[in-house]
Amino acid sequence: MLRNRSLLVSAVCLLLGMHNLLADHFVFTGSMSQARTGHTATLLSDGRVLVAGGQNTTGALKTAEIYDPSTGRFSSTGSMTQPRVNAAATRMADGRVLITGGFNFTAETFTNLTAAEIYDPATSRFSPTGSMSVPRTGHSAPLLHDGQVFVVGGTATNIQQAEIYNPGSSTFTTLPSMLVARGQAVAFTLPNGNVLVAGGNLTSAAGAELFDVGLGQFEPAPPRTLLSRSIHGIVVLGSGEILFAGSIDDNGASARSEVFDPGAGVFLPVGSMAVVRSNHAGAVLGDGRALFTGGAALDSTQMVRETSSVELFDPATGQFRITASMLSPRGGHTATALRNGTALFIGGANQGVFLDSAETYVPDVPTKRRAARH
């Protein structure tokens, strides 16, 4: 009888262990050579991830490293021409990565940057390229359909001016001004080739506008459903819709969320996030769901701290739900969707401590591709 009971207990434990393996979860992967936050993370053409710049206790960083999903390890690569925090990184059509702006600081100075540089995966080297017309940090730089890079927003002072980088001539060209001066705006290239610019760091920049690439000018976009000035969790869903998950306005952080439907050209409300958070990071998984991780949120004592909580957005239902937590609380980290259907979360900070760790999210098995919400 005891032997049978022991076998039964062992079988139950085995099944529970298999259930844990099949359930969605996070696993630590290799650590970076340096802790960093405010860095960029760019998926390269071969599936590796370029991590560049940021800051830690030593100051602003110009070092870079490569994460290889096949080995789960980081390795050093060439350093940038100068330290950069909160720069923008854009993988161009030829596989090279354009890195624009950001800021550098020392004990005596703080400088927003106009300079840009290019990382070439073939040589593992950075080289300078043209400079922007104005300094920018925390800006957006989406790739256009014609291979040029659209640069907009940035810096604590609202900027009304946008510009385009031409990789053929290595030059930036100034565009007509936006309708509204915007600071921390976000921009996305739409399927029709035009660019949606949304948000900003002032209430006056809560709306959105469109850049018509054919006309070369900005036009009003449909009214937004939410009055947010700065958006933190933004991803492009498999349907082409752009999901804005959470925001900060004059009343603080908000869990309210919305999508922009490029086909209909309208903003539509969706379910609110399960947790009010800011400074979080999101990525779209291989099954079409969007994962939002960490950031700053209220803890049980009503203090704002970095959190390890995570939630999933399902396009089929338009709703968020809590899922497995990260292994480390983190905010100001980066999120990168990998080609194997998982997502990689790198660095950031936790209560003032800069992190060198990284972790990946493993979806539940078997995964089923969710139908896009219509």
Rg, nearest Å = 21 Å
Q: What overall geometry do the principal axes of the alpha carbons give?
A: globular
Placed side by side, the strands forming the largest sheet appear as 1-35-32-31
CATH topology of the domain at 251-259 and 271-374: Neuraminidase
Proportion in helices: under 10%
Oligomer: single chain
User: Architecture of the domain at 251-259 and 271-374 in CATH?
Assistant: 6 Propeller
Query: Got a strand count?
Result: 35
The CATH class label of the domain at 251-259 and 271-374 is: Mainly Beta
Q: Name the CATH superfamily assignment of the domain at 251-259 and 271-374.
A: Kelch-type beta propeller
Low-confidence stretches: 1-21, 367-374
Tally of contiguous helical segments: 1
Secondary-structure-derived class: mainly beta
End-to-end Cα distance: 58 Å
- Proportion of strand residues: 35-45%
Can you give the mean pLDDT? 88
Describe the biggest sheet?
Answer: 4 strands, antiparallel
Structure commentary:
This protein has 1 helix and 35 strands. The protein has 374 residues and is mostly beta strands. The strands form 11 sheets. Strands 1-35-32-31 form a 4-stranded antiparallel sheet, with no helix packed on it. The chain has a 4-stranded antiparallel sheet with strand order 2-3-6-7, with no helix packed on it. It has a 4-stranded antiparallel sheet with strand order 8-9-12-13, with no helix packed on it. The radius of gyration is 21 Å and the shape is globular. The N terminus and C terminus are likely disordered.
